[in-house]
Amino acid sequence: MGNRPTLIDVAKAAGVHLSTASRALNESTSAQISPETVKKVSKAARDLGYTINTVARGLRTKRTQTIGVIVPDLTNPIFPPIVRGIDSFLGPRGYSVLVVNTDNDPESERNHFESLMRRQVDGLIIATGHTDKIILANYHNQGITAVMVNREAAGAPYPAVVGDDASGINLGVAHLAALGHKKLLHLTGPAESSTSRTRAQAFSAACKNHGLQGKIIKCSAYSIDAGQSAMDKFLNQNLHTITGVVAGNDLLALGVYHSLRAHGLKCPQDVSVIGFNNMPFANDFQPPLTTIDAPHYEMGVQAARIILNEIEGEASSPVKIMLPVTLIVRGSTAVAKKI
Amino acid sequence: MGNRPTLIDVAKAAGVHLSTASRALNESTSAQISPETVKKVSKAARDLGYTINTVARGLRTKRTQTIGVIVPDLTNPIFPPIVRGIDSFLGPRGYSVLVVNTDNDPESERNHFESLMRRQVDGLIIATGHTDKIILANYHNQGITAVMVNREAAGAPYPAVVGDDASGINLGVAHLAALGHKKLLHLTGPAESSTSRTRAQAFSAACKNHGLQGKIIKCSAYSIDAGQSAMDKFLNQNLHTITGVVAGNDLLALGVYHSLRAHGLKCPQDVSVIGFNNMPFANDFQPPLTTIDAPHYEMGVQAARIILNEIEGEASSPVKIMLPVTLIVRGSTAVAKKI
DNA sequence: CTAAATCCTGCAATCGATTGCACAGATGTA
DNA sequence: TACATCTGTGCAATCGATTGCAGGATTTAG
């Protein structure tokens, strides 16, 4: 790659010592240098097209101004907004983001973690559900600063930024109750994930509160296919026993759509469906999906804010930030059918 | 972050000199060291939990094993697959990926470019349509190695990996022709983008070939809103003058959906619509979108392959790789309505 | 048995910055 | 006038690796 000028070149051009040039160019040390010298050095730097070599700086300062972001899969539509939120906060502050995908594979997660460590990232933002408490405690003991986003690990030593899952599920159940539904089904995601557990518990509680009957079935992953096969299995032995579905997320809801169609059921006429996340294009599905909007971009922003604070300020206590969610009513929910 | 052991610690533990430890641990130099010494050093490294500091190595070797990926917007669903394709090829080969979003803003693009340079990336994969030939030539003069993906700049000094846009559009037009459509409309994207021009030209050519009437309208961006407003404008003065639409991409097609609905037209009964890209969830739209599948993941893989070749091998001539596309027929196209 | 070649390993320079310390000259204080 | 303080700059060590070169030990050749 290009042979860009170094600080020595700038110093020579300005007729000062290397260290003077360094101080002149550095925000925090330029006060030590006389204004004329600063001007001279800045001009030389500009003339030569000097840009700092962050690798060299990083070696000396032990700060790379790089944050590692660990996600399961960037093609899952909820993650790009999170990543952009992180980036939008960090970018203007001189930080860059290294994104890795683990596909929820612990082996892959370990490898990527090692790779990020080798690269001397200043901190980690973890969005994978899989990472268990032992690993996290381990990270913490190694002195690694990190923040969880969209997932929380109860008892984990790190701050977390999450959506208010429980009240989201509540909103969904209340909406169905108001439409006259009595018998509901919840599709829950993998048990390792904290969101799965939170949402499932909230579902049970909300059903009880509203005096509804609520069943729960498990999905092996947060994917369309997993949702579809779980729903297929359910419908094969329980046709016409429920009128409303609260899916663990939008992908599962989409799987439910497919399954309903395959079983000759219409949404929302026969069965109402509610998703979670309000993923991009949820409004363009068939039918447009009623769902809980979780502020993913904002979650990214908040996670970035916290980690920067931990890196540059002093370590705060492991706070938990819970962002509010809202119900978006679209075409997949309707008045309950008599069954 | 953690105080990990350095090479000196390993060398001491193994009772050898720093440089010997370095050579022992390095694939390409370990042959210079006696097998027993290599074993001793490896054991010491393992025992201490040593991992190399890539920042220090990067300073010395002038290779950071990092590739910068410049995209307009990660939340645009075609980019995550590209990024994952890149990552899947580069990751196992020891490279990491720094993704930046420009939002198609030249100022932002320049800033991000500078940031990547400061970080000493080994190469750039550019997926932004906006980057013009002058800038690219400029990069090239600075000795920067780069590859274009999903966009090509004719006459640019860099290799490019693209989908076969022209034959994709051909497939679409042929499909509509076979369904009896006579009057078609093409929504083209921003003129700066090479794909826009290629697709528009292919559309005109294909219409001529099939003896069809083909109109073209421009959209200000590749977005739902831009597609909708362009289509609105068209329909307001040209209701019932076309029966088929070939959109510049899936997002524009979605905009067309919205516009048709607002004008009381049904897809596909009144108007057939074809998209481009086969973005995720295109099958779940209302109606499921007939579209051209472009192999984005594979494009990422190929771009990564080429750039690694340029970095590690010798610079090849600026090749252009054109990946085949296929027509995916779903529910948005039907036999033409009489108008 | 000696000279040459080969094999290992250590020494030290280097990559491009940052930063504690020293010191010269200017300024302030009594 | 004498001494303390302050300002601005330079010197040199340092971050953690890689790598050309030198040289001792060992092997091979003649």
Account of the 3D structure:
Two copies of one chain form a homodimer. Chain A is of the alpha/beta class and 339 residues long. The first copy, chain A, has helices at 7-14, 18-25, 35-48, 54-61, 79-90, 106-118, 133-141, 165-178, 194-210, 224-238, 250-262, 296-312, and strands at 66-71, 96-101, 123-126, 146-149, 160-163, 183-188, 213-218, 244-247, 272-277, 290-293, 320-323, 326-328. In chain A, the strands form two sheets. Chain A has a six-stranded parallel sheet with strand order 2-1-3-4-5-11, with helices on both faces. A six-stranded mixed sheet of chain A has the order 7-6-8-9-10-12, sandwiched between helices. In chain A, helix 9 (194-210) links the parallel strand 6 and strand 7. The longest helix of chain A is centred in the middle third of the chain and has 17 residues, at 194-210. Chain A is elongated. Chains A and B meet through helix 4, helix 5, strand 2 and helix 6 of A and helix 4, helix 5, strand 2 and helix 6 of B. The first copy, chain A, binds a DNA duplex (30 and 30 nucleotides) through helix 2 and helix 4.
Give the H and E element order of chain A. HHHHEHEHEHEEHEHEHEHEEHEE
Assembly type of the chains comes to homodimer
Query: Numbering strands along the chain, what is their spatial order in the largest sheet of chain A?
Result: 2-1-3-4-5-11
Given the helix and strand composition of chain A, which structural class is it? alpha/beta
N-to-C CA distance of chain A: 69 Å
| Largest β sheet strand count, sense and barrel closure of chain A | 6 strands, parallel
- Per the principal axes of the C-alpha atoms, what is the gross shape of chain A? elongated
Overall pLDDT confidence of chain A: 94
Number of helices of chain A: 12
Proportion of strand residues of chain A: 15-25%
